[in-house]
Every structure is written in C-alpha cells, then in structure tokens.
Amino acid sequence: MTRDAQGTILVAPHHFPNLDREHALAEEFGYTLNPAADVEAFREGLPEADIVMITPYAKLTAADFPVMSKCKAVIRYGIGYDNIDVAAATAADIPVSIVPGTASEEVASHAFAMGLALARRLPAGDASIRDLGWAGTIGYDTPVLSELEVGVLGMGRIGQHVARMYQAVGARVRAYDPFVTDSFVGLTGLEDILENSDVVSLHLPLTTDTANLVSGDALARMRKGAVVVNVSRGGLIDESALAEALASGHIAGAGIDTFAEEPLRDGHPLRSAPNTILTPHIAWRSNRSTGALQDGAVERVRLALTGQPLIDLVN
Questions:
Q1: C-alpha to C-alpha distance for 278 and 257, rounded to whole angstroms
Q2: How far apart are CA 164 and CA 1, in angstroms?
Q3: At 273, phi and psi to the nearest 5?
C-alpha cells in the first residue's frame, strides 16, 4: 500500500539527460514529480503544483499566477529569469529563486572562443574554401591579438571571466557596467565601447533598459570590421539589424548563442547572414554543468519544502 502524495513538483520541459535528482527528492518528501512533456502540459499542471521548477523552454506570465494557489516557490534552472513575470509572482506572494554560478566558466569560455574565432576571421576562411575560393577572398583587416581592443558589456561573474581571458592573450580590455564602480579593467561608457572596440562581448541581463541595446543605430556606430558576441540573453540585439550589418560588411562577424525567439525559426535573417557562429543556447553546457545546475535547483526546492529561507531570490 502506498502513501498518499504530499504534493506535486512540476518540472517544465527540459533537455536534461535525466531527472534522477528530482525524482529522488520527490520520493524523499513523499511528493509526486510531474515532468511536463511540452509547454501545454506544463501550463495544465500549474494549478496542482506545490513547487514549479522552470527551464528556459517555458514561461510564467501574469495570466498564470492566479491559478497557482498551491505554489510555495518557483525555482528557475539557471541565472536568467526574463521568462518569468516576477512582478506577478510577487503580487501572488510566490518567491522566485534562481541558480547562478553553475556554468560561469563554460559560458565565458564559449564567448571567448567565439570572439577569437571571429576576430581571426575563421568563419570567413571556412566559407571561402567551401565556396571554392581561397585566401584572396579574405581581407587584410584581421587584428593582432596584442592590439585587439575588447569591450565587455556587463561585469558580473561571466563578464569578469571573459575580461581575464582576453587579458591573458594580451588584448586591451575595457568594460561597461552601470552598477560597477571599481574593476580590474578600465571602466568606460557604452558609447565608447561601441565605437572603439574590435570585439563587443555582451554579458547583461535582459531588462526594459537593455532590450535591443545593440540596435541598428548602435551597430552603425560600431567600428567597421568589429565583431559582436552574445551568450547572455536573447533580445539584447536587434537581430534583423545585425543581419543587415553583417550582409553589408560593416560588422565583420557575430557569435550568437541566445536569441530573442528560440528555437530560431526557419527563415530568420541570421540563418543566412555571413560570417556568423550560431549555437543553440548551449554555452552553459559541459561534462559537469548540467549536474551542478540540477543539484542547485534541487537544493532550493529542499529549502522550500522544509520551510527554510530561500537563497538567490529575485523578488
């Protein structure tokens, strides 16, 4: 005879290899784990959920929270929470906790690898051979690493890692972050970064202030031949304007891991833009990061179920 479940833990659609950690936690507390097969099933499970564990592949909007009367906490796998209406969660008295820091090195190294590959024009060289061309099709504007000017937008954990990586190869690094007053690299204004950098690397949250921060106008002000990297949040860049700047040759390359709309739709202008490195929101992945992310989320669920104060709250 099995005991009645104490409650339900709802897990949003995910790409994890397994949910062994989550199943073990649910069993320990006598809860039912409900892994949603798709977004529709996730939304249908919200009214009965005592805990909601959400991934980037689902959203919680203002319309969802009124039905979440049983919910004790929302736990977001990862650091970004722009897919959650935090104001609505706060109004519903539901705490939202994130899991930062589990893949800072992975994301930073992804951004660094993209930036170096683009600065050295590797996508252009690869495309030249595939199009039956050769070295004559590639220009002479490739900067030397010791003279590379790098602008880092956002000096949180990941931005700091990126800055140190570029410093290690001799690049000249400056940063912009309106919330940082002291840094191991020189701090400057956004306009200065955009106009005087060979590589612009984005490491900012997506907010009303940062949405389309790299707009068409911003791209036009960037140094001709510069490259841009975004492994942070989709929506920081006007992607249509970026595709146009790449096609015109004003921007020499772009490395993008996060997009305003995911998965990237068929016919999206970046799919056919030249000199790009596009990856499907995988900068955080490694042979250790997935387990660390799930462990962090499980730890926060445990706190919520035992009535302890949650950590890394965003409301």
A1: 6
A2: 58
A3: -70, 145
Going by the DSSP 8-state scheme, the letter that residue 164 receives in this structure is: H
Tell how strand 73-76 and strand 186-187 pair up.
unpaired
First to last CA, the chain: 41
Residue 78 CB neighbours (<10 A): 19
Tokens of 30: 């006598």
**How far apart, in whole angstroms, are the C-alpha atoms of residue 172 and residue 40?**
48
Active site amino acids: 233, 262, 281
Question: Which H/E stretch holds residue 129?
Answer: helix 122-130
Query: What kind and span of H or E run contains 278?
Result: strand 276-278
* Residues 11 and 19: beta-carbon distance below 8 Å: yes
Q: What is the pLDDT along the chain (315 residues), one digit of tens a residue?
A: 344 578 999 999 999 999 999 999 999 999 999 999 999 999 999 999 999 999 999 999 999 999 999 999 999 999 989 999 999 999 999 999 999 999 999 999 999 999 999 999 999 999 999 999 998 888 888 889 999 999 999 999 999 999 999 999 999 999 999 999 999 999 999 999 999 999 999 999 999 999 999 999 999 999 999 999 999 999 999 999 999 999 999 999 999 999 999 899 999 999 999 999 999 999 999 999 999 999 999 999 999 999 999 999 999
* Residues paired with residue 92 on neighbouring β-strands, in sequence order: none
Q: Which helix (H) or strand (E) holds 32?
A: strand 32-35
Instruction: Please tell me the predicted confidence (pLDDT) of residue 1.
Output: 32
**Taking CA 285 as the corner, what is the angle to CA 43 and CA 235, rounded to the nearest 5 degrees?**
60
Torsion region of 61: left, alpha or beta (phi above 0 gives left; psi -120 to 50 gives alpha):
beta
Longest dimension (CA), the chain: 76
- CA distances, 61 to each of 84, 114, 170 (Å): 6, 33, 45
Pick from 302, 312, 314, 292: which is nearest to 72 by CA?
A: 302
Whose tokens are 């590797």? That residue is 122
Find tokens 């706190």 and name the residue: 303
